[in-house]
What does this fold into?
Amino acid sequence: MSLGSNAEKNLMINADRLWASLMELAKIGPGVAGGNNRQTLTDEDGEARDLLKNWCDQAGLTTTVDAMGSMFAERAGEDPDALPVLIGSHLDTQPTGGKYDGTLGVLAGLEVIRTLNDLNIKTKHPIQLVNWTNEEGCRFSPSMLASGVFAGVYEQSWAYDRTDDKGLKFGDELQRIGWLGDRPVGHVKPHAYFELHIEQGPILEQNQMLIGVVKGGQGVAWTRIKLTGKESHTGSTPMEMRRDAGLGAAKIAILVNEIACKYSPHAVGTVGHFDIQPNSINIIPGTATVTVDLRSADDTILNAMKEQLDVGVRRIAQDLGLAVSFEKLSDSSPVTFDEECVATLRRAANGLNYPHMDIISGAGHDAFWINKVAPSAMIMCPCEGGLSHNEAEHITHEWAEAGTNVLCRAAIDIAEIVN
It folds into this structure.
């Protein structure tokens, strides 16, 4: 960083302005218990995008939108040939999401740019604020969909054909809310990418750390499993003659827990969704669909877990006389972030005298995919009790401020100050 010592001390974001922006955006798509329900490509998502676009216009940024609906708002650099430094995250939420997951990263990026404007700091590289479409994946699976297309992991046509539980297509809904952009996906070639996020876990708070420097993330394997048995009356079908798909689903949940515990603390696993049909109190379920989420930062462990899941589910189906099918929803390897980007974050935290530690992200983030096409790293701040994907999700004013200050210093370190 080429600022003098006095200017460097003054390079602090406006924490009150950041917090006010977070609270203002949280009014869009309110949840039922204090959080947010602003699922991707809903009217509420469109309204949040409109507000962000308005704020970007006020900050003098030039906003473009790509064919996946991702927003890129640029603060020009002094070198017209220099590639942009990207900072951002996502605005979409879970159905019962909190106010900070994703949103903090986007509005922290906006606050960085507002701060540079306030201080009239110029950079060689442009700085672009990005809002990635459909990070959560709760409405259109898989998660991190737009950043995945950006990184070449998914085909755009395939993404457009993804459907929600009502059969509505991603591409149609993107057009309906008015955010189908005219720029091709990948029109932005990043110099580097930084993403601030709440931890969504308890490690930083337990260790009384303000900042987590994220070295990488767990690999994630999502699988949808469908079991098919035979519907019959609960009262008149002998136990030995049943083909109970619901029982099979329950056994899969137990199997997943056993596999994850076998590799703990280096892995986790959950059955997060059950769909039992016909879902009647006096009918033995004829079909059951479950989703399995397996994660590990060790590729060898993750592959072993996937193999054990496949073998175990097939055994359960055979023992219960059920047909079984598998659909791979997402399968990503563990991520290791760029060493120089990680070192830049450590320098920023050290320069601010913030207590910090290296961590591995347990959740997936857009930075995982962007790391495939540009040097990337993540910053994390604590979240209270490690609670996220919950309307009670909470962070403090201090945590938001600290994470954004680190983001600011790291971004301009890479973007190179020229005045």
Summary: The radius of gyration is 23 Å. The mean pLDDT is 96. Residues 26 and 99 are 6 Å apart (CA to CA). DSSP finds 13 helices and 15 strands in the chain.
